[in-house]
Design goal:
8-stranded mixed beta sheet, 2 domains, Rossmann fold, about 375 residues, alpha/beta, 16 strands, 6-stranded parallel beta sheet
């Protein structure tokens, strides 16, 4: 698919979306849409709530409300998702002329597109953004989840993966040669360059969502140990949700150097972190999907010229590790080399890594990666 063909093609992006009070959380689906914007004839999206039907399904500019009782039980919710997505994909194809490409962001979003592909003759891409070997306690649900992941990987025209470990998993288990498309940001050097001189070397930033109680203990435990090495650090936490819970932990433990910041978009987070000096990405080593993710936040750090500290369990591409823009914690978020971490956190070292971060961000810009992959479609 050459550039001219992309311009003449219509794209449908289908994804499950996590909602919070102020709206949907940005993720791989939004990164893909931004990367295609201005390059394709037409871009539409189907956004299905990840949990329940408190929020409507979005189809382009339309909102489709679903009775809440369909979302109470997980099997019924997924079955409802399947048939509604099937109908909306069919409607997109009936209403759209010319070449079409459907991009499914998760297995459940991609399976309906596989069923309709022989009838509408569109190209299908499965963007695999995570995988969890223990997602469901129910063996039947887990088996179905893994089967859908396999079908989505095998029967799509292309399979994109968000990290190297997923590419290896699909090659080993499905014999599929997946394409590495990190959930990176589109390169924008203006974000960091205008604030670089204002950095003082003492601001550490984190953002994300914590699912388990264990995750809270891990995050605050790591922060405490980092602050023992650099007591002057100002720690700025930007939770996607549960702000009250974060604040309660801070108050209960009398953490003077940790503050909560409320932001409402990925762009706002990027503009905020560009003013900081070092990032933090901490993960639970016992959580099933940890080894099959490459954190979105690390690409925001590099986009802003910010080196970062990260757990050793997630998948991180070799060029990022080799560049030394990140400091890897030991297994299970241990601190085997406190002297090395102290050197990493020195202001001069953080400043020296600024251009390396920007170079990686430029090389792995998601729009470049997607255009290169579409050229092979």
């Amino acid at each position: 698919m050459e550039k001219e063909t992309i311009k003449k093609s219509s794209f449908l992006v289908v994804s499950h979306v996590l909602y919070r009070k102020i709206g949907p959380v940005e993720g791989p689906y939004s990164s893909v849409i931004k990367a295609l914007k201005g390059k394709a004839k037409k871009i539409m999206e189907i956004k299905v709530p990840l949990f329940g039907y408190k929020n409507p399904i979005n189809f382009g500019n339309k909102e489709i409300g679903i009775p809440s009782f369909f979302g109470i039980l997980t099997p019924i919710k997924y079955l409802t998702d399947f048939f509604i997505t099937l109908f909306l994909i069919a409607k997109f194809n009936l209403d759209t002329k010319g070449d079409k490409v459907v991009i499914g962001i998760d297995p459940l979003s991609t399976i309906p597109a596989i069923a309709l592909k022989p009838f509408f003759k569109y190209k299908l891409i499965f963007y695999s953004v995570d995988f969890n070997e223990t997602r469901f306690n129910n063996p039947l649900m887990q088996g179905a989840y893994e089967l859908f992941d396999k079908w989505a990987s095998v029967y799509s025209n292309q399979t994109w993966v968000v990290c190297e470990s997923l590419r290896e998993y699909k090659k080993k288990n499905y014999k599929v040669e997946a394409i590495y498309i990190p959930n990176s940001a589109m390169f924008d050097p203006s974000l960091s360059k205008r604030v670089k001189k204002k950095r003082k070397g003492n601001k550490l930033a984190w953002t994300g969502t914590l699912i388990t109680e264990r995750s809270y203990g891990i995050l605050f435990g790591v922060i405490k140990k980092i602050c023992e090495i650099r007591p002057d650090l100002e720690v700025l936490l930007v939770p996607i949700r549960d702000h009250e819970k974060f604040q309660k932990i801070i108050d209960d433990n009398n953490y003077k150097n940790i503050k909560i910041v409320k932001l409402t978009s990925r762009r706002a987070w990027q503009e905020f972190v560009a003013k900081c000096d070092v990032g933090l990405a901490v993960y639970d080593d016992k959580f099933g999907s940890t080894k099959y993710i490459e954190p979105l936040k690390i690409w925001d750090f590099m986009l802003c010229g910010v080196p970062f500290i990260i757990s050793s369990e997630p998948s991180i591409s070799k060029p990022v590790i080799d560049s030394k823009v990140c400091y890897l914690l030991g297994p299970a978020n241990s601190f085997p080399d406190k002297v090395g971490l102290k050197r990493f956190l020195e202001k001069k070292n953080l400043e020296s890594l600024f251009p390396k971060c920007l170079k990686l961000s430029q090389n792995f810009s998601i729009d470049k990666r997607i255009q290169k992959s579409l050229a092979k479609l």
